[in-house]
């Protein structure tokens, strides 16, 4: 018999002062209760009860042992209740990792609205643009681009796309000329994501025609803000998130390039990533459901 179950049976016998009544209370047979106590005595090497045909009485060892057992069982019950509560009620610390640029420019309203609706969930948010292993790095979930995940064993849910635009500084175009077709881009430098993270390919589409260009990466970085600043300073063309460059487009520090073409960027899908559906904590389930509902996805 399980040792913990033996402790519960022992405490029940002490409380009702009878093997028979303990068996009735626990829904067990009298022989099973008696055997559990006997096995516990053998394990401890002490007699716990003095038995007679009419009644039982605790030994001194049993009195001391009961005090500790009762405390342990009460504490264990509290821990079990707390653990079950964590799977049904959204509480505790939710450790979220998210793409820096996407969070600052797009995700703040989502996170703020979630916190308003679930005030008992404490948010611990890490921003990064590097590759992430949710389990190894200790995160409950992530809002990331596909190329940031180090394993395909994560469950991912599409949330939204971050629109991308090809831009340049006016000075760079003045020195190199304005590209007229996608083929002209092979003569231009690009400030892009590191080729070790994402292949240096640019796909452009106009109507039903799609062109793929192998770009020359002059400066590489995983940080969108740094890439923007390098493009503004005239080091090349860049494909950047539209929310990040809105002000620069308005004040003329950046201009659109080949604006009649759409950037076809599969890597711009923001996805919700988490490790498992089974035994998912309530705080994680709450965020998953809230985020997918927020963006109107199933």
Descriptive notes:
Belongs to the LysR transcriptional regulatory family. InterPro entries: LysR-type_TF_proteobact-type, LysR_HTH_N, LysR_subst-bd, WH-like_DNA-bd_sf, WH_DNA-bd_sf. The protein has 10 helices and 15 strands. It has 298 residues and is of the alpha/beta class. The protein folds into 3 domains: 3-88, Winged helix-like DNA-binding domain superfamily/Winged helix DNA-binding domain (Arc Repressor Mutant, subunit A); 92-162 and 269-294, Periplasmic binding protein-like II (D-Maltodextrin-Binding Protein, domain 2), CATH 3.40.190; 164-265, D-Maltodextrin-Binding Protein, domain 2 (3-Layer(aba) Sandwich), CATH 3.40.190.290. It has a 5-stranded mixed sheet. A 5-stranded mixed sheet has the order 11-8-12-7-13. A 3-stranded antiparallel sheet has the order 10-9-14, with no helix packed on it. The protein starts with a helix and ends with a helix. The mean pLDDT is 87.
What's the layout of helices and strands?
Layout lengths: L2 H14 L2 H8 L3 H15 L4 E3 L4 E3 L1 H29 L3 E8 H18 L3 E8 L5 H4 L3 E4 L10 E7 L2 E5 L1 H7 L12 E4 L8 E6 L2 E6 L1 E5 L3 H9 L4 E5 H10 L3 E2 L5 E2 L5 E6 L7 H13 L4
Parallel strand pairs: 3-4, 3-5, 8-11, 8-12
Antiparallel strand pairs: 1-2, 5-15, 6-15, 7-12, 7-13, 9-10, 9-14
Helix pairs in contact: 1-2, 1-3, 1-4, 2-3
Features:
single chain; 298 residues; alpha/beta; Arc Repressor Mutant, subunit A; D-Maltodextrin-Binding Protein, domain 2; five-stranded mixed β-sheet; 15 strands; 25% strand
């Amino acid at each position: 018999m399980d040792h913990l179950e033996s402790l519960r049976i022992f405490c029940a016998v002490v409380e009702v002062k009878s093997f028979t009544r303990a068996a009735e209370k626990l829904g067990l047979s009298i022989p099973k209760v008696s055997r559990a106590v006997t096995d516990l005595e053998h394990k401890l090497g002490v007699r716990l009860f003095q038995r007679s045909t009419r009644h039982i009485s605790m030994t001194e060892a049993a009195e001391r042992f009961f005090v500790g057992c009762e405390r342990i069982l009460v504490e264990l019950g509290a821990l079990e209740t707390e653990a079950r509560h964590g799977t049904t009620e959204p509480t505790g610390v939710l450790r979220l990792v998210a793409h820096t640029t996407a969070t600052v420019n797009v995700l703040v309203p989502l996170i703020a609205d979630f916190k308003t609706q679930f005030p008992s969930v404490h948010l611990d948010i890490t921003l990064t643009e590097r590759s992430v292993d949710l389990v190894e790095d200790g995160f409950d979930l992530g809002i990331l681009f596909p190329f940031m995940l180090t394993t395909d064993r994560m469950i991912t849910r599409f949330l939204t796309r971050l629109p991308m635009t090809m831009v340049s500084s006016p000075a760079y175009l003045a020195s190199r000329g304005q590209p007229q077709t996608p083929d002209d881009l092979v003569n231009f430098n690009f400030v892009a994501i590191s080729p070790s993270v994402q292949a240096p390919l640019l796909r452009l589409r106009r109507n039903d025609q799609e062109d793929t260009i192998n770009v020359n990466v002059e400066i590489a970085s995983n940080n969108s803000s740094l890439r923007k600043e390098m493009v503004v300073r005239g080091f090349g063309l860049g494909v950047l998130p539209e929310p990040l460059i809105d002000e620069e487009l308005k004040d003329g520090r950046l201009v659109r390039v080949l604006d009649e073409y759409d950037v076809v960027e599969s890597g711009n899908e923001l996805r919700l990533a988490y490790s498992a559906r089974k035994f998912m904590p309530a705080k994680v389930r709450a965020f998953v459901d809230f985020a997918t509902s927020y963006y109107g996805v199933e």
